[in-house]
Design a protein that fits this description.
- This protein has 493 residues and is mainly alpha-helical.
- The chain is built from 19 helices and 10 strands.
- Strand 6 and strand 7 form a beta hairpin.
- Helix 10 packs antiparallel against helix 14 and helix 14 packs antiparallel against helix 16.
- The longest helix has 26 residues.
- The chain is globular.
- The protein starts with a helix and ends in a 10-residue tail after the last helix.
């Protein structure tokens, strides 16, 4: 385990995230190819490099927020930040130049996976199980990447061949989203088969069989609800989530503990960060996206600096009243509120506000942002189970699982009664997800999956026909189209 942690730190530290553009795939030269893919150590190095790119893809430029949060409309500018291009996403008025419409970083990640899947089978390993595991990680990450591409853009290019040379042509057109999901389902099945099981608290930053089953559940739910997959997909989802719930992951009694401890036994899968990677006196460090949420010290009165988390970075983002007034209950009623959101009076007028989830760590007077990003938690396993069972008309089982999460939040047994209708249970599950996973990269795609985008999101009310009915998809960045003339813009953009 120590060897893996050290390797991750070294490889993750080798990438600069602040200025990454990810406009093109970076090919491996033929010389590198002929000399690299020879040994088990080469394969292991490629594995950690892939996870490094996985982190860069989701965390650089705050893509996890741009792709999976902002369009829900629950965001606004922070105390010292400006809206910039963010406003286009918050208001769902995007175009081909909007930040986050470039999918190139996802294809850079896919290329890392493709190379592992091409070369690792030919390498001799001392342990076949580890060889299978390396392959399983690549299948997991590729499934994740293509799943996000399909959710965000719909039809996208399918690339399964590694890009290794500048002499190699790689100009693929967009394939139908149904074909993309054929690949996604095949990849996640391989990941589940090849990845080993894990235990709660053990290296959650490396995908496990349980993490793969969480992703598989999410894929099946999306296909059941958004692609007409029906009970066949729901039955697969039930099998996958039941396998997760057999493990020893827990719900922390204290909601905050799931975020203050990166090895919490609630975490099923996360993205790894470490203080030693890039100590930065500004407090931003390697750019874990939580640095956007904390107030700049100059905007916090001296009398409040021991109470209000602050740093030398800019508070670019915070939750909007559209979210806080609609979904957050008083702290005395829901323990999650104090972690998701804080607002206190400013002696000089107004209030000081911040998202209290990813706070970093105060080290020698400077706040360092290296909290691991939570991708899957046990709370989501229970809510996935509730969603699957309700869709399969097992309402009472759904409510039982929903109430496990509600009990921690509200401290009340049977918070949701069995008398609720199926539609009311669905509404409750979605609301609990929007509260439980605030600022964790879930809200936009959750709202779409539940079919509520044109009801819940203020900027989308009455816009079902906008962009030729494709308003819920992203446009393709103009830079992508200019580099590959086979790419056709998302209709309506």
């Amino acid at each position: 385990m120590k060897k893996i942690i050290i390797a991750l730190i070294i490889l993750l530290a080798s990438i600069s995230y602040a200025c990454e553009n990810n406009l093109d795939l970076a090919p491996i030269s033929s010389i590198t190819t002929s000399s690299f893919w020879k040994t088990e150590d080469d394969a292991e190095g490629a594995l950690y490099g892939m996870y490094s790119q996985f982190r860069a893809t989701l965390n650089s430029n705050e893509n996890i927020l741009y792709w999976m949060e902002f369009r829900s409309g629950f965001w606004t500018i922070g105390t010292s930040g400006g809206a910039g291009d963010n406003e286009k996403l918050w208001q769902n008025n995007m175009d081909a130049t909007t930040t986050s419409t470039n999918w190139s970083s996802l294809y850079t990640l896919i290329n890392d996976c493709n190379l592992i899947l091409k070369y690792v089978p030919e390498i001799t390993f001392s342990n076949q199980n580890f060889k299978d595991e390396v392959m399983g990680h690549a299948y997991f990450v590729r499934a994740f990447a293509y799943f996000k591409l399909a959710q965000l853009w719909g039809d996208v290019p399918i690339v399964t061949e590694g890009f290794e040379s500048i002499t190699q042509e790689l100009y693929n057109s967009r394939s139908p989203v149904a074909e993309v999901f054929v690949l996604v389902k095949a990849d996640i099945a391989q990941a589940v088969a090849k990845l080993p099981g894990s235990s709660a608290g053990f290296m959650p930053w490396m995908a496990s069989k349980e993490a793969a089953n969480m992703l598989r559940t999410e894929i099946n739910l999306w296909l059941a609800k958004r692609a007409g997959g029906g009970n066949a997909e729901l039955t697969e989802a039930r099998s996958a989530i039941d396998a997760v719930l057999l493990n020893n992951y827990i719900l922390e009694n204290n909601y905050a503990d799931a975020f203050r401890n990166d090895k919490s036994k609630e975490i099923i899968f996360s993205i790894y960060f470490d203080y030693s990677e890039e100590p930065n006196p500004t407090g931003r460090d390697i750019g874990q996206y939580g640095w956007n949420f904390v107030n700049n010290i100059n905007y916090v009165p001296a009398s409040l600096r021991d109470i209000v988390p602050n740093s030398g970075s800019t508070q670019w983002l915070t939750l909007s009243p559209d979210y806080t007034l609609r979904f957050l209950k008083p702290e005395s009623e829901d323990q999650r509120t104090a972690v998701n959101w804080q607002e206190i009076p400013n002696p000089s007028g107004g209030t000081v506000k911040w998202i209290n989830k990813y706070l970093g760590t105060l080290i020698e007077g400077t706040r360092r942002f290296y909290d691991d990003i939570r991708i899957y938690r046990q709370a989501e396993a229970y809510l996935f189970k509730a969603e699957v069972e309700n869709a399969l008309d097992n309402k009472d089982v759904a409510i039982t699982n929903l109430n496990i999460v509600a009990k921690r939040a509200y401290g009340i047994d049977d918070y949701y009664p069995l008398t609720l209708s199926k539609a009311e249970v669905d509404e409750a599950i979605l609301e609990e997800r929007l509260i439980e996973f605030a600022a964790e990269g879930k809200s936009w795609l959750d709202i779409i999956r539940f079919g509520k985008a044109f009801e819940i999101i203020t900027s989308l009310v009455g816009r079902e026909g906008d962009n030729q009915g494709n308003i819920l998809l992203f446009p393709v960045n103009q830079d992508v189209i200019s580099r590959n003339t086979k790419i056709i813009q998302t209709p309506g953009y």
